[in-house]
Amino acid sequence: MSDEANKGLLSPLRRKLLMGMAAVPAITMLPRASFAQAPATSAVNTTGLAVTDTEVTVGILHSATGTMAISETGSIEAEKLAIEQINAMGGVLGRKIKFIQEDGASDWPTFAEKAKKLLVNDKVAAIMGCWTSASRKAVLPVMEQYNGMLYYPTFYEGLEQSKNVIYTGQEATQQILAGLNWIAKEKGAKSFFFIGSDYIWPRTSNKIARKHVENVLKGKVVGEEYYALGSTQFNSVINKIKLTKPDVIFTDVVGGSNVAFYKQLKAAGIDLAKQALLTISVTEDEIDGIGGENIAGAYACMKYFQSLDNPNNKTFVPAFKKMWGEKTVIGDVTQAAYLGPWLWKLTVEKAGSFDVDKIAAASPGVEFKGAPEGYVRIHENHHLWSKTRVGRAKLDGQFELIYETADLVEPDPFPKGYQ
Amino acid sequence: MFGDYSLGDLGSIFVMQGFAGLILFSVYVLMALGLAIIFGQMGVINMAHGEFMILGAYVTWMTSNLFQAYLPGLFSGYFFLAMILAFVASGALGMLVEWALIRHLYKRPLDTLLATWGLSLMLQQAYRSVFGAREVGVELPQWMLGSLHVTDSIEVPINGVFVMCLTVLITISVAYVMYKSRWGRQVRAVVQNRIMAGAVGINTEKVDRYTFGLGCGIAGIAGSAFTMIGSTGPTSGQLYIVDTFLVVVFGGAASLLGTIASAFSISQTQSTLEFFMSGSMAKVLTLLAVVGILMLRPQGLFALKVRK
To the nearest 5 percent, what fractions of chain B are helix, strand and coil? Predict the structure, then answer.
């Protein structure tokens, strides 16, 4: 309490000093980042977050080392790009965003520890972070206990909702159902073979997919197989696929296994030009490792492809490549990670405050018209309304957009009839 | 389960499944051979084995890029050169590691476990810093892709056949080196009695260094070959390490024949079970069987009598 009181006394004084110092360069060099217009810190920050008159601190919490670095690198890059762009436009409520990056090291307890450090020691206003569901589940109690705000980028299995999390990726029904509908209609598909890595996301996704295939599409699931994370031998299951001759192979294999699976599929003579394959786990990032020639012809179902043809994406892709190199590719999750800082900025401006409670309350209805995927809006349940798209993998590792839903798909993290 | 399928279908599937088992067998032998030499002959628990494999994979990736850039005409043959380079690179790194780290720990076998595990983490981070955190795609020459079309329903993956041939070749070479050459005799002499071997004039330090280098070099070749069937990333080596140790320990640490027999039984069990049940269930049952047999025969399938 005494801390708060002291700050109240000190901060107007300090602000005046800073304003005096900052005024000269601010007026001559950065006409738009005028500090005179910025609302007083004491008004926008009542809970003691790391907000000064000129800066606000956020955290970036991903794995830069360990197994998950393969996937999370893209998210880190996207978040840094978004922060840089927001700062170039004058920041948030007249304050530049400063970020503190912590490494979750692909280890879930480390994620929780680092999240606590960011919230308790650094008093960050928001955290952009986590990738796997396991890391999010580890961080969630910390976010709720210390009342933080997490922007989580990955498409995931759903069955979760929290005041302290904004889910910028799709939950399972959003991602899967439209894709299954499309392939059933377009290819007349009746029989499906499911193959996934053995952990919660593929299992939940396949459960939802099975219910949809059996109850809604009136089709048949002729096989459902799981392989331990990191498996590299798929010849037996490929033989089973050959024996059961499904109309569609539906896959959610992840990580290094992905590479092995597609290489062996191709080597076994399964031609993806003839055999329909729908994946929900392969983005442009994964194709880098798999090799375009091994996966060309496969369909992927998600909300973003690097090749999307819209004005937002046409400025986003070159900006990303300029910052991170010409060869970098941008997958679905990378784009969703890019949304995080932007949605946070828009929400802060809507709430007129950095306070977490006010942001959580102001989030529903916040819309981001500059999203590379087109347009997104935050739902009451803190997930995003977004379109679902089907793309077809090409030899050069990019996807060609085949289909997109006419409207935004409503997020439904607790789908009735699918549990 | 098979009621709905014609006899022809079933016949060809059993043939294909046989091949799948043989390919898995070759993969296991290839990844375990290097470790069998290091663990079996020297008693060093090399947790960084997977990282030596991935070094081979990265060397292959670099060779393929070099050929594409400077010698596109010879691209179809680059893989053979890549394997030789992989052997040299991993072998050289292995000898360096033996000199700098392992030789100080021969009397403390359990500490080698920790030291090499640390080494594996260091190597992973080194790969990440040098090659980037993302996986790299190794482009293969056209003739190594696809499958041999035997009948309408029987197709044999070419890369599988390639791995099988490579495995046979390397196994024969290793067997020759270990059991027929003068150097192999020295290695076995050192294993059986280090002091006596030294007393009769064998340079035991040198033998140790080359043995470790050979084991790592073979790991490099395996890594190079696995770019055809698996992923190449900083942590891909971790995918192989458990299976590798499983094969070596089950086979009986000091025996080449044991390694082969164990790779054969594990791969056949695994691949047959995988066909009848889900992949992770098959793995569980295979591991259970291995644990059960090791309880009855702690020394592994084939055990050499060594003076303790």
Answer: 75, 5, 20
Find residues 286-305 of chain B whose CB sits inside 8 Å of chain A: none
pLDDT tens per residue across span A231-259? 888 988 998 898 889 999 999 998 778 88
Q: Do A64 and B133 touch (CB under 8 A)?
A: yes
Q: Number of A:B CB contacts under 8 A?
A: 145
Nearest Cα to Cα of residue B242 among B302, B292, B303, B283: B283
Instruction: Among B20, B149, B229, select the one facing A239 at the smallest CB separation.
Output: B20
Element (H, E) at B125: helix B109-131
Token readout for B294 is: 């090791």
Residue B16 pLDDT exceeds 90: no
Our measurement of the distance from residue B71's CA atom to the centroid of its chain's CA atoms, rounded to an integer in Å, reads 30
Q: Are strands A248-252 and A276-279 parallel, antiparallel or unpaired?
A: parallel
Distance, CA of A249 to CA of A238 (rounded, Å):
10
Strand, helix or coil at A220?
A: strand
Whether residue B263 lies within 8 A of chain A, CB to CB, comes out as no
Tell me how far apart the alpha carbons of residues A324 and A328 are, in angstroms, rounded to a whole number.
7
Task: Report yes or no: A396 at the B interface, CB cutoff 8 Å.
Answer: no
Report ipTM (2 d.p.): 0.82
Q: Which is it for strands A399-404 and A389-393: parallel, antiparallel or unpaired?
A: antiparallel
Task: Name the residue of chain A whose CA is nearest to B135's CA.
Answer: A289
Residues of chain B contacting residue A235, judged by C-beta atoms under 8 Å apart? 19-20, 23-24, 157, 160, 271
Reported confidence tier of residue A22, pLDDT bands at 50, 70, 90: very low
On chain A, the residues whose CB falls within 8 A of the CB of B282 are 236
pLDDT in tens, B45-101: 899 999 999 999 999 999 999 999 998 888 888 999 999 999 999 999 999 999 999
Which of B24, B153, B228 shows the shortest C-beta gap to A263? B228
pLDDT (tens digit per residue) in A67-81: 788 789 999 999 999
**What band does B304 get if pLDDT is binned at 50, 70 and 90?**
low
Task: Say how many C-beta atoms besides its own lie within 10 A of residue B230's C-beta.
Answer: 29
> What whole-number distance in Å separates Cα of residue A53 and Cα of residue B140?
57
Q: Which residue in A116, A91, A92 sits closest to A102, CA to CA? A: A116
Cβ separation B280–A242 shorter than 8 A: no
Cα–Cα distance, A347 to A361 (Å, whole number): 9
